[in-house]
Amino acid sequence: MGKRKTISNLVQILIMTLALSGFYSVSYAQSVAPDADTAVDVQSDVESLKANLDDAEGGFANSGKELAQARTDLVIKTEENRATVSKLNSEIKNLNAQQLRNTNETARLTANIVKLSNEIKKTESYHAQVQAKAEIVKAKLTDTKASYDQSMANRQKAVADLKVAQAEMQKTSNALKSKQRDLKLALSKESSSAIALKKAEVSLKMMQAKASVESKKIDQQIKTVLAKAEQNERKSRIASEKRAQQEALLKQKRQKLSDAKLRLKKSTQRIGSN
């Protein structure tokens, strides 16, 4: 804007100079006077105007150069602005694409969070079911242990009873041997007393029969107690194996739950960082 104003001023100066030059030329031709001083003044004014015209022409030439330089600068600046606009448009396009990718990634992560939340709920529900089953198995194991302890107590009692019976049998055997000795003594002393001998034989047979019955009864009790103890021990072993399996399964489910929570935590952290 300043350069245009300078050029306009120079043009006005040039026009005024030319007009004044023509005016003085006409005046000089119309009124050629014998006054030498007037002629000198007119000539001086004409030379001054010519000098001003030369200065104006030089300023106009400089203004033309400045205008050309301004046009060149304008072209360069326009190209720079175009390059800047193109770069900004490319960056905006890249940012829009990145925003779209971020939106898609956010949607995907949100879907994963919902999926993981559902898996956690299912795992927690299954964990509760497994825990309940484990409590039931634990109660059954407690009952089985109590039954096993009772069986062991019964077995110990049966063993004690067996020892008592064996002691009784030993006592009976000793008594039998004593009777046999008495019988032999009686036979040696009273070989003629058949009645005493028969009574002794009858008494001996009765004692033997009683001892045999007691022995069979105790043997049967021992077999029954041992069979029941073995059965309870087998049940206890099976229950222990089932409990170990349930605990292993529960441990696996807890590990899966922990892994799912860890994946959820990592996904949440990635979303937060984005």
Report on the structure:
This protein is an all-alpha fold and 274 residues long. The chain has one domain. 96% of the residues lie in helices and 0% in strands. The protein is built from 3 helices and no strands. It has helices spanning 2-30, 36-189, 194-273. Helix 1 (2-30) packs antiparallel against helix 2 (36-189) and helix 2 packs antiparallel against helix 3. The longest helix is centred in the middle third of the chain and has 154 residues, at 36-189. The chain is rod-shaped. The two termini are 50 Å apart. Residues 1-9 and 17-40 have low confidence and may be disordered.
Unreliable stretches covering 5 or more consecutive residues: 1-9, 17-40
Subunit organisation of the chains: single chain
Let me know the largest β-sheet: none
Radius of gyration: 67 Å
Order of helices and strands: HHH
Q: Number of DSSP strands? A: 0
Overall body shape: rod-shaped
Tally of structural domains: 1
Q: Hey, roughly how much beta strand do the residues contain? A: under 5%
Tally of separate helices: 3
The assigned structural class equals: mainly alpha
Amino- and carboxy-terminal Cα gap: 50 Å
The portion of residues assigned to helices is: over 70%
Average pLDDT score: 71
Question: Any descriptors?
Answer:
274 residues, mainly alpha, 0% strand, disordered N terminus
